[in-house]
Amino acid sequence: MDWKTIDKISEETGLSSESLRALKKRGIFREKLHWVKAPNGRIFLSASAIQNWITGNSNNVKSIRY
């Protein structure tokens, strides 16, 4: 299954759950590409889309600007 909870993606990538939530909130992670909201209100992230973002293999992502 590609869609995983924020906590599970955090465990797998080493990124904190807070940083994943911040990336979502700032629009770095895009709805329906990187994340979806389930009918029960829970947020799920796409493991493959996050992996592509981490490795820079996706054209559908914004850059982080500090």
Distance, first to last CA: 33 Å
Largest sheet: 3 strands, antiparallel
Number of domains: 1
Number of helices: 3
Provide the β-strand percentage band: 15-25%
Tell me roughly what share of residues is in helical segments.
25-40%
Q: Structural class, from helix and strand content?
A: alpha+beta
Mean pLDDT: 90
Poorly predicted parts: none
Write down how many β-strands occur, each being a DSSP E stretch of 2 or more residues: 3
Rg over C-alpha atoms, rounded to the nearest angstrom: 11 Å
- The helix-strand sequence is EHHEEH
Description of the structure:
The protein is an alpha+beta fold and 66 residues long. It has one domain (3-55). It has helices at residues 6-13, 17-25, 47-55, and strands at 3-5, 35-37, 43-46. Strands 1-3-2 form a three-stranded antiparallel sheet.
